[in-house]
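During the no-cost extension, the postdoctoral fellow (Dr. R.K.) reprocessed legacy sequence entries with the updated structure-token encoder. One reprocessed record is reproduced below for audit purposes.
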Amino acid sequence: MLATPAYAQAAAGGAAGGLIGFVPILLIFVIMYFLMIRPQQKKVKEHKSMVEALRRGDKVVTSGGIIGKVVKVEDAEVEVELAPNVKVRVVKSTIAQVTSKTEPAEA
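Re-encoded structure tokens follow.
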């Protein structure tokens, strides 16, 4: 008789307890959005604008580590000159970095 049963106390607050249980899960999703998803979307947007701004004469680095100068820009591909008379066609999305930009041509 040292322990007394308390059956009525366990039944109180059933609906509120269910909502409070979802708060940590919701908090995890919010934190993941701000720490992982949002920065990745920003990085993709910056890369897309960099690729769209490519023009002839830019020096670029591909994701494979090839360094060259843009000779020709097409819709989905770029022609990159690695050395004199050595040209390679590269998919635009594989351009990782633009090391030096050329000035736009004057009208």
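The chain has two domains: 13-52, 54-107. The helical segments are 7-10, 14-52. The remaining legacy entries will be reprocessed before the final report is submitted.
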